[in-house]
Amino acid sequence: MTTEHNLTIKTINQMNIKNNLWKFLLIFFSFSIFTYAQDDIRIGTSARDYYRGQGGLYDYSDPETINITVFVWGFVKYPGQYIIPVYSNVNNLLSLAGGPTDDANLDDLRIFRINKDSSQTMIKFNYNDLLWEDDLSGEIKIPEITAGDILLVPGEPRFYFKDYFSLVTSVIGTLVSIAVLFITIYK
User: I need a labelling partner for 171 at 20 to 30 A (CA). Which of 125, 133, 155, 162 fits?
Assistant: First the structure.
């Protein structure tokens, strides 16, 4: 009777371990997905400021002068619509937009402009000399901004060693966890 009783208790304990393991894994993966999906919200920021920072209207107008509306699209920290003084240039606008991100291609910045006669103009310029070169390759002319201009900062996501390393370690960690789970369950 004790041998059968011990086998029954052992079987029940194994089933409880399996159930608890599945519950633990479900909670663990749910928590890891939830924490990975959260955005970077700082303590002390209001929800209005947080959502406004996702792109929108930025008012840097000067009450002493005429103000214009321009747009910044692409790989900058704060893309969106900007109200700026008429005397602003591309440097001012890039600074107000938080600067280019690491993924920006600064050799192909563009200003899209609709002229008064309804024709369209694309002004291309290169800012790589300012950031990466020891000497300027030529005279840099900083383009002026007019009302309705769209500053385009092209780019593409770049992966660095730390990104690849993080991805590989996450995949390996998950595979090891699953292997340990199966070994524990079927042992």
Answer: 155
Residue 103 and residue 155 in contact, taking contact as beta carbons nearer than 8 Å = yes
Residues 6+ apart with CB under 8 A from 18: 185
Residue 48, number of CB atoms within 10 A of its CB: 8
Distance CA 183, CA 18 (A): 11
Structure tokens at 79: 């893309």
Task: For 72, list phi and psi in degrees, rounded to 5.
Answer: -125, 125
Beta bridge partners of 82: 58, 70
* The token pair that represents 5 in the structure block: 């009783």
Nearest-angstrom CA–CA distance, 96 and 82: 9
* Chain segment 36-67, per-residue pLDDT in tens: 444 455 544 444 454 444 558 899 989 999 99
What residues have CB less than 8 Å from 74, skipping those under 6 apart?
104, 151, 152, 153, 154, 155
113 DSSP β-pair partners: 121
Residue 67 three-state SS: strand
CA 145 to chain centre: 27
Element (H, E) at 174: helix 161-186
Helix then strand count (H, E) for the chain reads 5, 6
> What is the model's pTM?
0.57
* Beta strand ranges found along 10-108 (DSSP E): 56-59, 67-74, 80-85
